[in-house]
Amino acid sequence: MAREGTPAASTHPLAYVRRRHGWSYQDLARVIADHARVLGVPMAARREKVWRWEHWGVVPEADSQRALARALGIAPRELELHPWPRWLPAHTGMPDGLPWDVDGSCAALDALLDDAADDSRGFPIAEGIGLRNAIADWDTAVAAPCVPPSAPSDPVPDRALPAAGGPGAPVRSAGPRGSALRGGRTGPDTRAVPGAWPGPDVRAVPGARTGPRSAAPASRVAVWPVGPGRGAQPAPPGPAPGSARRARVPEQVGAPGTVDSGVLDWLEAGALGLRRLDDRLGGSAVRHRVEADLRLVRGLLERQPQSPAIERRLLRVAADLAQLGGWAATDGGRYGAAQRHYLTGLRLAHAAGDRPLAVALWGGLALQAVITGHPQDAVAASEAAVRAAGGTPSAVRALAAIRLARAHAALGAEGAFRRAAAEAERRLDAAESESAPPWLYGFDTAELAAQQGLALLDLGLPYEARPLLEQALAMQDPCFVRDRALYSARTAQARALTGDHDAARSLARDAARLARHCTTPRLTQALDALTPLLTSPR
User: Fold this and answer.
1) What is the pLDDT of residue 441?
2) Could you give the maximum distance between any two Cα atoms of the chain, in Å?
3) Can you give the C-alpha Rg of the chain in angstroms?
4) Could you give phi then psi for residue 173, rounded to 5 degrees?
5) Crossing angle of helices 129-142/335-352, nearest 10°?
6) 3-class secondary structure, 366
7) How far out from the chain centre does Cα 268 lie?
8) What mean pLDDT is reported for the chain?
9) What is the pLDDT of residues 254-285, one digit of tens each?
C-alpha cells in the first residue's frame, strides 16, 4: 500500500531514550543486563530483544523493566503507576496534566519553546493509547460543566465587545492568572450551550446549531474549563493580595509598549505570510521564523495590562503559529516535534475560543499519522477533528471530512473513505457562499481532488487516483511549489501503475525539477520511489 512517507527511525519512547543517551541496541541491552545483575537477576545482553521492544511492540518482562528503571534513575513505584512504555522519561515537556485555560496554554507553550533547540534526533510521538489519552483530555475539557456568571464587569469594555454590564457583556471567571474564560455571552437575544465552543466575538443565535448539544436555558452560559475535573470559579471582586496581575486600564492606541490592534494586525499578517513562504520553500525554510514569532507572541502575552479581546487575539495568533509549526515539522520529518506543536496549539486555540483552528490542529495530527503509517491513530485524530468542526464554516467541515477520508483510506476501509470524501465534496460546495478563516486559503477544489487522489493510491486504486491527481495539478496555483512537486510525483506513480510510463517519466522529471526549490524528506521519499523512471534512458 503506497503512503506519503514512512518514519526514518523508530518513534517508540524507548528509541528516544536510547538516542538521548547515545546507546545502540547492544549498548542498551548491556546496560539492562548489568543493572539486572545488581538486582540479583542473571540476564543475557541480547540486542534483538531491544529491537523487538521498539519495533514489534513487545512488552519487556518485569525484571528488564526494573533494571532499565534503575539505570535511568526511575523510582520503582513509577512502573506500578504507569504501564510500559508510559513510565519512560520520553515525553518531558509534553502538555500533559495542565489546566485548559490561559495559564495552562502558556505553560505548554513555554515547554515547547524551551525544548525547541533539543530536537536534533527527534522527540517521540504519542501513539495508540498515548494519543487516545490526549483526545480524552481534550474531550473532557470541551465538555466541562458550566457555571452561572458571577464576576463583575471589566472597568473598561473591549472594543470588539458590548459595553461592560450591558446585554452581551463577556462572562469572566478566574484562573490562576485571574484571567477571563473566553467566549461566553449572555443577553436577551442569545443562548449559551453547556460545553459548546462558540467562536470569539460571535453572538449565538437562538436555535442555531453550535455543536452536538442542545441549547440550555438562558440562565446557563458556556465558559472555558480550567482543567479536567476542576470547575471554573467566580472571579474575586479585586486582585488577590500579592497578585502579579495588575488592574486593567484603558488601552491607549499607539502608546509605547502597548499591544494594540496595529500590533495584532502585523502579527496576524506575519503568520499568513509565513504560510505563503512554506508553500513555496517548504517547512524547513520557515521553521526558525515560526519559533521566533511564537517567542514574540509569548512575550506579549506576559505584558500587563491587557484587555480580554487583545489576549484572545494573541492566543489565536499563537495557535495559528503552532499549527504552522506542526505542519513545518511534519514536512521536515520531525514528527515528535510536530505532535508537540499540534497538542500545544490545541490548548491555545481552546483558550482563544477558536474552534476552526482546533479542527486544523486535529487534522494535522491525523495527516501526520497517515504519513507515519499509523492509520488507526489517524482515524482517532480525524474523528476528533470532525467533532470539533460542529458549527464551523462549511470549508472547515470539509477539511475535517477529507482528513477522515485519508485516514480511512490508509486503514484500507474503502467504503468509509468514500462516505467521508462525499461529505467533504458536499461541504466544500456549500462553502462557496460562506467566508472561511484566512489560513484556509489553500483548501480548494484542487486540494480536495489531490487528497482524494492520494487516498485512492493508498487504497491501491491508481486508475481512479490518476484523473483526480491530474485535475489537481491542472487547477493548482503555481505558487504552491512544494505541493505541486509532491503531487507531480504521486501522479507519476499513478501513471506508472496504469502502464503509461512515458507520461510517468515526464511527470517524475517535473517533480524533480520543482523539488530543487523546495527540498523536504517527504519529497525525497516520493522521488526515491521514482528512481527507475528518472534514470531511464528514454
Assistant:
1) 93
2) 80
3) 25
4) -145, 145
5) 10
6) helix
7) 19
8) 77
9) 555 678 889 999 999 999 999 999 988 888 88
3-class DSSP state for residue 347?
A: helix
Phi, psi (degrees; rounded to nearest 5) at 27: -60, -50
- Cell numbers describing residue 386: 470532525
One-letter amino acid at 238 equals: G
The C-alpha atoms of residue 451 and residue 405 are separated, in whole angstroms, by 9
Distance CA 508, CA 160 (A): 51
User: What is the spatial distance between Cα 451 and Cα 436, in angstroms, rounded to a whole number?
Assistant: 19
* pLDDT single digits (tens) 229-238: 333 333 334 4
In angstroms, the CA 217 to CA 215 distance is 7
Residues in the chain, overall count: 538
Taking CA atoms, 353 is separated from 39, 75, 229, 267, in Å, by: 52, 40, 20, 18
Using alpha carbons only, give the angle 179, 184, 190 rounded to the nearest 5 degrees: 155
pLDDT in tens, 434-485: 889 999 999 999 999 999 999 999 999 999 999 999 999 999 888 898 889 8
pLDDT-wise least confident of 292-306, 313-327, 390-404, 521-535: 521-535
Query: 34: part of which helix (H) or strand (E)?
Result: helix 25-38
**The three cell numbers locating residue 448:** 480536495
pTM, two decimals, is 0.67
DSSP 170: B
CB atoms within 10 A of CB 152: 14
- d(CA 384, CA 439) in angstroms, rounded, equals 20
Interior/surface letters 67-80, b for 16+ CB within 10 angstroms, e for the rest:
bbbbbeebeeeebe
Whether the upstream peptide bond of residue 305 has omega within 30° of 0, thus cis, is yes
Measured in degrees and rounded to the nearest 5, phi and psi for residue 92 equal -55, 130
Partnered with residue 173 across adjacent β-strands are 234
Please say if the pLDDT value at position 163 is more than 50.
no
